[in-house]
Amino acid sequence: MTIALTGFMGCGKSHVAACLAQKNGCFFFDLDETIQIGEGASVTEIFQTQGEASFRMLELEYLDRIFSDYADFPTDMVLSLGGGTILTPQCADLIKQNAVCVYLRASVDELVKNLEITGIEHRPVLAGTDDLRGSVAALLAERAPIYEKTADIILDVDGLSFDEVADRIIAATDNL
What we know:
This protein is of the alpha/beta class.
């Protein structure tokens, strides 16, 4: 089974995916990291030099490649998606066809707290914002319906450790 984690930036997708992969003894891909390695540039650099539309097409290309290359692989896989990956309808379709999609739902307060800790300098859609809370709230309001529509499972993650979230995903997917 392939499990794809989606959610807003700062909800813990990458950390939870790594924890989940370790618990399941399977492969873990971070889509943003995979793109950065493949393109030899950071997500921020790609946004700055090629624009967001080009980055979204790279997400589709790399996502398709991951699913194609590992379609017949005899083990499970965990995939951490970028916060905006499923905004591209073709990406959402690929995920629905090839994975169990889990939306890690977090409140604006939780997201802002996490983003303040990790910093927003490597978050191109938040670059230059003077009002982090307002920007997060506005973007989340736009994206939440898409996350919910694409997800097979929705988990509220406020106040949970990465390990606790991983355990809840395991419990939720055991019967699938």
